[in-house]
Every structure is written in C-alpha cells, then in structure tokens.
Amino acid sequence: MNREIETKTERIVDLLDKEDLGGVLLNAQHNFAWITGGASNGIDLSRENGAASIFVSRKGTRYLLANNIEMSRLLLEEIASNDFEPIEFAWQDEKTTPDLLVTKARDLSDGQIASDIAVQPSMRTIENVIAPLRFELTSDEIVRYKTLGTDAASAICNVIDSLKPGQSEVEVTAFIRKELQSKNISSVVTLVAADERISKYRHPVPTSKTWSKSLLLVTCAKRNGLIASLSRMVCSETAPSELKEKTEAAAFVNASLWNATREGVTGAELYRTAAVAYSKMGFANEINLHHQGGATGYKTREWVVHPGSAEIVKADQAFAWNPSITGTKVEETVIATDDGIDVITASIGRPAIEHEIDGKVYNSPGIIEL
Predict the structure, then answer these.
(1) Residue 338 CB: number of other CB atoms within 10 A?
(2) pLDDT band at 81 (very low <50, low <70, confident <90, very high)
(3) Does 109 share its domain with 152?
(4) Same-domain pairing of 9 and 40
(5) What would the mean pLDDT of 3-12 be, rounded to a whole number?
(6) How many C-beta atoms lie closer than 10 Å to residue 297's C-beta?
C-alpha cells in the first residue's frame, strides 16, 4: 500500500462526498503528478492536458485510463498496477469516438462524474475545489521537494560558476536548462536579464543581449510534478552601493513574508505584510510594480497574494515569495511548518542577507560577486 496515494485518495473521496459526485477524472498534468506521487502523463508539454487520465470513484477505487500507445510505458516506468487498475483502449477508438474517455469513466461510477479540466463540454469541471487538496504536502512529498530544492540550487550555483561577461542571455538560459536537465529537472520558467534589462522588466524573457556588469537568473524547476522557484543576482565585480541597498531592502520584505507565513494567516494579511515592509524600507511603490508570489507546489504559483486574497496558509504548504525592487529581486522556495519556514532552495556557502524579525533570524539570498 502506498500511503501517499492512499492519503490523497481519502481527500478526493471526502470531496466527492461533499460535492455529491460518483467520481472524478484527473487529466491535467499537474493533477496526474499529484495523485500518482510524481508520475507523468505528459507527452506534449505545451498542453495542460495529458496523454492518460486517473479516475477515482466515490468508493475510493482508482483507475488508470490510457490508450494502447501509452499504457505499457506507464505501467513499466511510471505507475504500479496495484495502485491503479489499468483500463486500456485502442488509439483508433479514441480518435473515432471523442467521448470515449468520458464513457469509460462513467462506466466505472454509480453517479454523476466530474473532471478537473474540460474533457467534454457538458461535463462539470471542479479544478477550483481539487486545487486545495494539493496544498498540504505529505511527508513523502516534503522529502522529494527538499531534494528538488537542493538539486535546483546546486544546478544554479554551477551555472553561476561558469558565468563570464560577454555571454548572452540566451546562452545563459541554455546553461541553466542543461544543468538542471542533468539532474532530471526541467525549467518550466527561465528568465535571464542582463544589466539594464533587470530594471526595465519584471519578467525578462531571455534575448541575445550580452551581459557586462550584472545578471539576474530565474528558474522554476520541476521534477516529479513539484516546482521549486529561485532567483539569483550576480555581479561581475563589486556590486554598486545602490544595488546592495535595494537588494537588502528586498531581502527585508522577503524575511517579513517568511516570518508571517504561518498556518491560518490569509493571503490578504500576507500582502499587507509585504506592503508595510516595502514602505518601511523606503520603497512603498514597488509593490505596485510586480506581484509578490504566493503558494506553490504542482503549479509555479497555486495562488498569488493580493489585497483581497481569501486563501489561508496551511501547514506543510509550499510558498515562493519573490519581492522585487527595480533592478533586483529575491526569491526562494520554502515550506511552512509548525516550527516556521524551511528554506529548501538555499545556496549553502553563497552570500546571504540576514534579518532578525521577532527574535527569528532569516537569511535571504544575497548578491553573488564573481
């Protein structure tokens, strides 16, 4: 028995009881990874839907639905058949009968069924109530997440050690993706900004521009469905005093958010925490120039804090805060625990900016000078 899958099945069954549904079809790649404990149904990664589905009935029985092209690989490399009963069909039938997947799922249920994303126009979609089931990480997920965070941070450090002025943003992007891929990690978001582009754009899509004095590296690193986000500021020489001041201010906002990320706190309260911190450091308007991040996990952001956020922090939930001040940015992925936050993407031995808040010390990533 896989305790992680059993725990998640129990959550789904409770949801089906509340929604009076006979079952739910999970086809989205992030939900497939979640319910299976890290397996992938992705072939075309540009699409949200996957090449196979999981159906969970109200009785708690689990099925893997896939065509004959995918089933053998899934059972040999991704999923144990004793965790999910395989239901296979011919790929030709899938093409000639558009409703085949839904029909198969309905045959496995005694009542009305729903899906996470639209697989049939008439079927109810319930991603909005499935999403919260993902938020509280299991003990097994936490182990995988910490390993991912460590590996992603190590990969970015390796990239930084190979940096030389004159390299283009797209070259650096290739280094990031290659280094992560060597650890079986994909970078689902890769942003790189050279020199003045750091100040111009909050989401600097890489270009052919070469860097001279400063570089911002950003990745959202994915493995087994989980995503760890981190950003690093790099200077080719001693960082200018203004950049240091701004980075220290962003780090204070980051530390303030870490200190406030506790079970039961609302997203709106966290937003206000960030706003107060920006103002205290003399950069009150910066909160209006970019979002501050929020909950993460099987999506780069499960939800983002804003003035009206009603979402509530759960125990063992992952967060990626990304406070920025024009020209710099601070970002790590953390897990909220009973004892406070656990930083899973820290770059050990690299520069850090320390802030003490309410008697607790927080170390945010500092500027790395080559």
Answers:
(1) 8
(2) confident
(3) no
(4) yes
(5) 98
(6) 26
Q: Are 36 and 78 in contact (CB under 8 A)?
A: yes
Regarding whether 255 and 190 lie in a shared domain, the answer is yes
Q: Classify burial at 46, counting beta carbons within 10 Å of its beta carbon; exposed 0-12, middle 13-18, buried 19 or more.
A: exposed
Q: Which domain holds residue 29?
A: 3-134
Q: Are residues 157 and 235 in the same domain?
A: yes
Note whether 69 and 151 are same-domain residues. Answer: no
Choose among 221, 212, 220: nearest CA to 193.
212
Q: Around 350, how many Cα atoms within 13 Å sit in the side-chain half-sphere?
A: 21
Give Dmax over CA atoms of the chain in angstroms. 68
Domain boundary among 134, 162, 193: 134
- Do 99 and 202 lie in one domain? The reply is no
pLDDT over threshold 90, residue 318: yes
Q: What is the pTM of this model?
A: 0.97
Question: pLDDT tens, 12-69?
Answer: 999 999 999 999 999 999 999 999 999 999 999 889 999 999 999 999 999 999 999 9
pLDDT at 1 over 80: no
pLDDT band (50, 70, 90) for residue 205: very high
Q: Which of 133, 131, 129 is nearest to 21 (CA)?
A: 129
Helix (H, G, I), strand (E, B) or coil at 356: strand
Residue spans of alpha helices (H) in the chain: 3-19, 29-36, 71-73, 91-96, 100-107, 127-135, 139-161, 169-181, 197-200, 241-260, 267-280
